[in-house]
Amino acid sequence: MHIAAILILGTATFVSTWAEPNPNTIIPFPAVTVPVINGISTLLAIVLLFIPNCIPLECTILSIQAVSTALTGYETLGVFLFTALIIILFCSGFFKTHAQRKILILFACWLLVIQGVMPQGIDRYIMVTVESVFFIAFYFCIYKRLEILLKPLMNIYAQNLDSEILKDKEVGQKISLRECSLDEREVNFTYDFLMLKKTYRELGDIYYTSTSTVKKVMAGVCKKFGVKNQTELRMLLMQYKVEK
Question: What is residue 176's three-state secondary structure?
């Protein structure tokens, strides 16, 4: 995906250096500004090759390009990039808490951005607003349908997992990781891994330790819960409301 992004952004940089800029854009000095924006985005995409799964950097690129494309006459592409940003944030666990508030804030910011489409014409402003609502609603419907389809399968799999620690807990109950015989490091690693969707490498960076140490700690957590690996651990604990 990152290589494709580099190719697309590189092409956009090249094209924007000689193409006639949109005369109605509110971006100042578009003949210079737009190629610079695309060039910076291309460089950031190259950086992603060396630090993959860097969510903040991916979101930065998407945000820059969503705004830039929407304000230079490519409103539909801008809306697509904005909704792609929301999807990446969702997959990274950003909406685990205060989801409605965060989505409303992001959408309000986007509505402010697309005010800049007004000079292109009121018809295009109306269309980009409608497209924004449609894309978000469309992806939300897809998510809900997948949730309905996959939840029974996930429940069947999870029911086959037997944990001595959780034998007295009902599915759907709140559980405290500190009450599950985990030490403080295991609690932090497990919570961030499950609830914040952090990778082992990211956990190592956050807690100033090596990836191998994180793997060793998480292997101990899996053993305590009576599961074989991180996938089974996630499937087991997702049945409960996990707290530290």
Answer: strand
Q: Which two tokens stand for residue 229?
A: 């690996």
- 72 and 27 Cβ atoms separated by less than 8 Å: yes
- Phi then psi dihedrals of residue 166, to 5 deg: -105, 15
Q: Could you report the per-residue pLDDT of 62-103, keeping only the tens digit for each? A: 999 999 999 999 999 999 999 999 999 888 778 877 888 888
- Burial readout 40-65 (b: 16 or more C-beta within 10 A, e: otherwise): ebbebbeebeeeeeebeebbebbbbb
Q: pLDDT for 96-144, tens place per residue? A: 778 888 889 999 999 999 999 999 899 999 999 999 999 988 988 888 7
Cβ atoms < 10 Å from Cβ of 172: 8
Tokens of 51: 């630090």
Q: Give the per-residue SS3 of 118-165.
A: HHHCHHHHHHHHHHHHHHHHHHHHHHHHHHHHHHHHHHHHHHCCCCCC
Q: So what's the pLDDT on residue 160?
A: 53
Helices then strands, each counted (H, E), the chain = 10, 2
- pLDDT above 90 (res 39): yes
Tokens 């409960």 belong to 240
**pTM for the whole structure:** 0.67
Maximal CA-CA distance, the chain: 69
